[in-house]
Design brief:
The chain is α/β, with parallel strands linked by helices. Helix content is 45%, strand content 15%. About 5% of the residues have low confidence.
């Protein structure tokens, strides 16, 4: 039986050890975990250490890093390697973006190991796999009334970070440096009014009402560096 050379990119050590145990007990597929990489800071260099990787299993929330931003780079330099996203995020937007970015499959950690093995089998055959209960388009409005899991006011930083546009991230980083609208405008080559609009949008998206709480939230969730 040919072994599937696998690397797992996930910061949750207990999850990785658990999934390795399941792989070791699997008889229908031989899955050999070569390494666990806890984050994506040096993903190209880390993956280049191995002469052959057949499968990459990757989490989206990599200790403040965004797996969705890392996948395109991985796909560009490792074109033959299969990529399976395994995460806790079920939003159809993430599923769609991951597949467009180059992932071959998407599964959530609440799915079963049978689903995981089915997904691996499919993508290794060149098929695309989407785990049970996931979608790449909005759920049917007739069957979807609001958010089935109301948002916690303590959302994790992955979700918070993805609420903001690239420009809003730039503005927020400068706000966290205690720069006023005029200073931000000069640094980003935009108008004071545009900065004001960005500031209002950022505060609305993050659910805060003043600059002090905005900076506090941004630093606590490591959306920007202090």
């Amino acid at each position: 039986m040919t072994s599937i050379k696998t690397v797992i990119v996930d910061p949750q050590k207990m999850f990785v050890e658990g999934i390795q145990c399941h792989f070791n007990m699997q008889k229908d597929q031989s899955i050999d975990v070569l390494a666990n990489i806890p984050d994506g800071r040096n993903i190209r260099q880390d993956l280049s250490k191995f002469p052959q990787i057949d499968l990459l299993i990757i989490e989206l929330n990599l200790n403040g890093q965004d797996g969705l931003e890392i996948i395109p780079s991985i796909r560009k330099y490792f074109q033959d390697m299969k990529i399976l996203v395994c995460t806790s995020y079920t939003d159809y937007k993430y599923v769609k973006e991951a597949l467009i970015s180059g992932a071959d499959g998407y599964i959530v950690k609440s799915n079963s190991m049978e689903d995981m093995f089915a997904g691996i089998a499919d993508i290794m055959k060149g098929k695309r796999y989407i785990g049970p209960g996931l979608h790449i388009t909005p759920p049917n409005p007739r069957n979807h009334v609001g958010d089935q899991n109301p948002k916690s006011r303590f959302e994790d930083r992955f979700i918070i970070k993805r609420k903001l546009t690239k420009r809003e991230h730039e503005v927020l980083a400068l706000i966290a440096q205690a720069k006023n609208n005029k200073e931000i405008a000069e640094q980003l080559f935009i108008s004071d009014q545009t900065v004001c609009v960005h500031r209002k949008n950022i505060m609305r998206k993050l659910g805060v009402k003043n600059t002090v709480n905005l900076i506090k939230l941004a630093l606590e969730h490591q959306i920007v560096q202090g």
